[in-house]
């Protein structure tokens, strides 16, 4: 056998075990990404949804734009909330635009 053929043959034999270790490394990497990034984000989304479902008229809230106000009405059919932001000033928002008070600085 010539030297280039021998080198190719050795590379092919070493590559057999390399595929399994690469798959294991990819699985470990996916698990790390899942447990440190995806799972906490899903958990946070569930908490925010629970907060939005518990909203009632009279609650003080903050929008994702930073507008603070008191809930005047909630329309579950259109998924909107009417906020009283000042005397005689009412603004309609989508329910998903409401965040728990105190979280606007942490985003």
Automatic annotation (TrEMBL):
Pfam families: YajC. Keywords: Cell membrane, Membrane, Protein transport, Translocation, Transmembrane, Transmembrane helix, Transport. GO terms for cellular component: plasma membrane. It comes from the Bacteria. The lineage of its organism: Bacteria, Pseudomonadati, Bacteroidota, Bacteroidia, Bacteroidales. It is found in: Cell membrane. The keyword Transport applies. Belongs to the YajC family. PANTHER family: SEC TRANSLOCON ACCESSORY COMPLEX SUBUNIT YAJC. InterPro entries: Preprotein_translocase_YajC. GO terms for biological process: protein transport. It comes from Alloprevotella rava F0323. It is a single-pass membrane protein. The chain crosses the membrane at residues 20-38. Its main location: membrane. This is Sec translocon accessory complex subunit YajC.
């Amino acid at each position: 056998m010539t030297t280039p053929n021998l080198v190719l043959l050795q590379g092919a034999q070493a590559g057999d075990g390399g595929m399994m270790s690469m798959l294991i490394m990819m699985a470990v990497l996916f698990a790390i990404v899942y447990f440190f990034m995806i799972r906490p984000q899903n958990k946070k989304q569930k908490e925010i949804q629970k907060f939005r479902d518990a909203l009632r008229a009279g609650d003080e809230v903050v929008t994702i734009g930073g507008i603070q106000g008191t809930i005047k009405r909630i329309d579950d059919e259109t998924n909107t909330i009417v906020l009283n932001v000042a005397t005689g000033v009412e603004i309609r928002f989508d329910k998903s635009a409401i965040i728990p008070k105190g979280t606007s600085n942490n985003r």
